């Protein structure tokens, strides 16, 4: 299940299946898709309850799927990742404990990944004869580079928080990831949204420059500072 609470300007999404290490079945994915669609706060903070961030897809459900149902399950996970990535605000993943498979993919869809020293990461799908299909094959090389992505995905090896920081899989290590969400919530929401849009724009340089000028002018005109 996904528990949603609003704390000031932060929408807190909690993966709340600690007995299953927060593994996500189709019901939990649909709950998360709705929660992200319903959120209006400048910042979303995504984290797991208990000792894990997210163990990935619920294998008990995956084992029951045929080919068509498996494709639908993957599409649902991709929609959740796309909703997080496309959210009109900042999305922070607070990773404490294990992130495995689909859990890594959820984190990759967030704007900022913050880990505690206890966090560990692995793309374990290959060890089961599978692979993560919630957008990870495109986001992982974009975040850590092709070489690191191939090493992680093809080996299924586990890396600790320090290694994840070195390769760029996470951007900060801290004992209190939630504090990072609060930092962002203290920033002007319009500026947050505009910066995210500009930094994610893959237009050519001239078009990007033009859009950057226009966005800057809009913020100045609005008196956001």
UniProtKB/TrEMBL annotation:
Domain of life: Archaea
InterPro entries referenced in this protein's UniProt entry, alphabetically: ClpP/crotonase-like_dom_sf, Enoyl-CoA_hyd/isom_CS, Enoyl-CoA_hydra/iso
Pfam families: ECH_1
PROSITE patterns the record matches: ENOYL_COA_HYDRATASE (PS00166)
GO molecular function: catalytic activity
Matches recorded under PANTHER family: ENOYL-COA HYDRATASE, IP11341P-RELATED
Homology family: Belongs to the enoyl-CoA hydratase/isomerase family.
Protein name, per record: Enoyl-CoA hydratase/isomerase family protein
């Amino acid at each position: 299940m996904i528990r949603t609470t609003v704390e000031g300007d932060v929408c807190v999404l909690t993966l709340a299946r600690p007995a299953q290490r927060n593994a996500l079945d189709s019901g939990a994915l649909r709950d998360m898709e709705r929660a992200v669609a319903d959120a209006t706060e400048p910042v979303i903070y995504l984290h797991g309850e208990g000792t894990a961030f997210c163990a990935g897809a619920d294998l008990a459900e995956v084992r029951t799927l045929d080919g068509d149902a498996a494709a639908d399950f993957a599409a649902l996970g991709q929609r959740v990742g796309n909703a997080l990535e496309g959210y009109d605000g900042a999305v922070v993943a607070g990773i404490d404990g294990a992130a495995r498979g689909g859990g890594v993919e959820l984190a990759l869809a967030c704007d900022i990944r913050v880990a505690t020293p206890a966090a560990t990461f692995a793309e374990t799908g290959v060890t089961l004869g599978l692979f993560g299909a919630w957008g990870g094959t495109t986001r992982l090389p974009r975040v850590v580079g092709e070489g690191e992505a191939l090493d992680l995905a093809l080996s299924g090896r586990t890396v600790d928080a320090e290694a994840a920081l070195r390769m760029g899989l996470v951007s900060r290590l801290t004992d209190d990831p939630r504090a990072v969400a609060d930092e962002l919530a203290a920033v002007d929401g319009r500026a947050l949204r505009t910066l995210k849009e500009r930094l994610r724009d893959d237009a050519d340089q001239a078009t990007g420059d033009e859009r950057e000028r226009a966005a800057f002018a809009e913020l100045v005109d609005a008196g956001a500072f």
